[in-house]
């Protein structure tokens, strides 16, 4: 601290750690005069420190302000414009904080020991030090100093008289040196270890100017200073041969614009190796702009940034801070002049280049005079009305606002005005100095110190616990819980004291919130009003209970809510009722899904006692009821008509979906049960759709089961307690009688999902059959209800994927109802259903063409009516009269006539196709009409003649050829000649066309078309042309020009399929066009032909190899199949039923078929099973062909018929049999006594 007095006495008070021993100050040495009743340090230190109450000296008579010269003092604070006014020394109330969602962010404390020393020095007659002028702190010494012991008092009265008041202070990084700047321009350096004066600098800057700022850099031998002339100087300290020197260098001249503030970049110990630190950055704020320069390794200006338009009286302020931006820690300088705070980020890229990047700015509504960083995310700003604004930099949210009027802040205006040197400063600088307080605000390690005229104040961030406790002391539990929840979720700003991973932080905060909840409940129960209306008591607990419930649910501590808290609330009946009522909205919003058994019983009892049955039903359908007495709940639901809850209990508690339907259906027979019936319809619809009633979904594994149960319920023949008088299918009857239309709508919605479910489709058909059985020809249902059924059936039949079957008679009844002109009920609905049904596939398959005509007539779709005439075999010949009537009779619009004309012409063209997808739609014309049509096409549409001739077959060739020749249509003539068989004539026609078009050489497309036509003719009929005509290339090459050579390759490629390559090459070489040129002109042509030859040769070889492989594979598999042994089913003949070997010495021949039946050859011959051949029983060259007598007899076919087929089938039959000759002395002797031994040998036998 520095102080000034009328006689210009200057002294500095520095604080040190508590570990340092306290030394008594020698009054004689320091000329400290005795005072009457000064406060002792012991008394000051023993006073209890109140956190939220600033220190104000009790004994106001100790301060003698009569001897203080007002002109020698600094600019007074807004709250201390008259320092001698005793009213300002009275004890004030605690500073109020804004109780926002962020709570109290800053802790405001007063350094009472230092403050007492300031007041003591000011009122002491011996010392007479005057009021303080500057403040600075040594690193973290003050932070850990709890006793605020006085250690040093630097300077003498002689020094103060010579140098004036202290105007600036700075302590170096290792807290060993102190720089003091004075009002008359001198600078002194002190050794803080022993209080020795090391240097007195008088020539560092121009004389006659006051020192405004003096700052150490991170380099121990380098400092900067700023004088009232607006200039900035670099101070380099040296010690050579025991002599301490100081060299000065001007960094910025005030003639270019006065600098008001300088701030070097200080890096903490952990950031000393940061890539920006070696550059020794310095930020300077002038009246017009901000400058960022680097002092090392050489002086360099890195950036200048102008303020823009600002108030001339605004104070430029700036501050450095290392902050994490984009996952990297880099220095950020914040500066402002006026109401806008700017941020500049300084970083070094990988290439070593320094970049200064402008970040987003912060706009305020007040004029700022101080800017300080608390940490990398939090700034503290002070405006001209001495109010602190705590801001969060990333979000730019204002966290808190504090009023500092009671601090009585010290301003540095006298130094900016340079009153000690005669006031030789510019008016702009003097105007800025009115609100300059640079030397009264100091920050270090998350603490901000403010120097007042009589005290020193400190601002620090509160820990998260302190911020919560601040609300609790004021019994503001709701705000405390809200703030704690923001800490729990990580959304709070300026958080201090929460460490570890997110889960641990949440656990710590959750424990604190539980503690707050208990305190809130206890406080509400203790402070409950003992007297008054019940509404007052209810309101008292309604302010507390929802908050407690909400935060217990947020913390997922329902155990805490329903056990400890609920047990405490049971002591007060009003609190119990409010608690139970408050649970309802949370249950309805499904935030609470399960209650403990006692709470659930109390909830139902309370609602039932107070007649809140709707609330009971709403809660039941949203909760897990497995812990309830289901019978009791069901009984309560029936007694109070809580049908939704009853259905939910059956479904969720017992997985029973049918019992509610049975119960509700039993009551639908009575009157005035509309609500119950509607609920039943909705319940059935939800069950069939897989949805739970009234909320949620049925479990996926139960959906098919529930659907089947509901269908089985609907199609039951009788109820459980049926009587003899009960009609069949009572449930469907009941629902139809209740509301036919809505029940059918439910079924229609259900049938929409039946596509691939075979069982569901069976239920669908069964239900439709029951509906028809119950409603049709039944007097119990009105015609309107039957009409609803017919409408329902029509909609189902009109579906594209319809699988319903109804008989023809019923279908006619449906159509009759829909088309009835006398019934006007629900006209729009019936019309829509008619449209769907008549356009459906069912009507088309039923060939109801007259019905479709009726519908199309209403829609004016006359082209569709023409289709109906064409498809109706009975009225096909009437189409001409119908088209004639539309085109000639009045009453049809021009658009309708044009549509009918276009449709008729389309069918006239389509009628020439004899074979098509719908042969019934063919309209056959006589040949003379065809020829007439060809003549018309030749006259008006010559391009459509050839396509028409290709699709039509009912014209005469000779007459049609004459017509095309008459109109000179050579392409059509060539096609007809080719169709007639006159290929030579067709060739000559197209060749003449090609010669003509090549002669003109005026258009490219006609040449190409004629050439392609000629090539296609040669392709189709190459077998009918002679060798000379095949070699059509000579004619082409002789006539073509160079521009048509690109067409030659297409001609030659087509020739290569029918003409030998040597002949083609000879023609090319003999052609006069290519014979005159060089070989290079035809090189590509010849090489292309050779390449084609090689490709075709390779293709032929590959194809031959594949065919041979496939043939070998087929033959191998066929041989394998033929060589496979056959297994007889019995050991006897299937005709004579005797053993296959009847006599021991006989030579028997047996036949075994692939079906396993065994026969004697003689037995089959006797049955005449041999096929017709050269001899009886032989086919071809004496090869027998047999068929199994037993198999052919079962199939109802005579054996002779089955073996009479010649070809592959007979061969297959013969391959499926095995004939064995068994002589006595043959190579294979069978000496086995059982037929199984024969089977073992037979499996290895090959035919």
Features of the shown structure:
zinc; zinc-finger; RING-type domain-containing protein; disordered N terminus; disordered C terminus; alpha+beta; WD40_rpt; 1247 residues; 43% helix; five-stranded antiparallel sheet; zinc ion binding
Query: Which parts are unreliable, with pLDDT below 50 for 5 consecutive residues or more?
Result: 2-33, 40-99, 137-146, 838-846, 912-922, 1033-1043, 1169-1182, 1198-1247
Mean pLDDT over all positions? 76
Largest sheet: 5 strands, antiparallel
> How large is the radius of gyration?
57 Å
Helix content: 40-55%
List the total number of helices: 49
- Number of DSSP strand runs: 32
Distance between the termini: 125 Å
Strand content: 15-25%
Secondary-structure-based class equals alpha+beta
The outline comes out as extended
Tell me the layout of helices and strands:
Blueprint: E1 2-4, E2 11-15, H1 27-30, H2 41-45, E3 106-110, H3 112-123, E4 131-134, H4 141-144, E5 150-154, H5 157-163, E6 166-171, E7 177-182, E8 187-191, E9 196-201, E10 211-216, E11 222-227, E12 232-240, E13 243-252, E14 259-264, E15 281-286, E16 289-294, E17 300-306, E18 317-325, E19 328-336, E20 340-348, E21 354-358, E22 362-363, E23 368-373, E24 378-383, E25 387-392, E26 397-403, H6 413-416, H7 427-432, E27 441-444, E28 447-451, E29 456-461, H8 464-473, H9 477-489, H10 502-526, H11 534-542, H12 545-554, H13 558-569, H14 573-588, H15 597-609, H16 613-620, H17 630-639, H18 643-654, H19 659-667, H20 674-689, H21 703-714, H22 730-738, H23 740-751, H24 758-775, H25 783-797, H26 808-818, H27 827-838, H28 841-845, H29 849-859, H30 862-871, H31 879-888, H32 894-910, H33 927-940, H34 945-951, H35 957-966, H36 970-980, H37 983-1000, H38 1004-1020, H39 1027-1030, H40 1033-1039, H41 1048-1055, H42 1061-1070, H43 1072-1076, H44 1079-1122, E30 1148-1153, E31 1158-1160, H45 1161-1166, H46 1189-1194, H47 1199-1202, H48 1208-1215, E32 1217-1222, ...
Antiparallel strand pairs: 1-2, 1-4, 2-5, 3-29, 6-7, 7-8, 8-9, 10-11, 11-12, 12-13, 14-15, 15-16, 16-17, 18-19, 19-20, 20-21, 20-22, 23-24, 24-25, 25-26, 27-28, 28-29, 30-31, 30-32
Helix pairs in contact: 8-9, 9-10, 10-12, 11-14, 12-14, 16-18, 17-18, 19-20, 20-21, 20-23, 22-23, 23-25, 24-25, 25-26, 25-27, 29-30, 33-35, 34-36, 35-36, 36-37, 37-38, 41-44
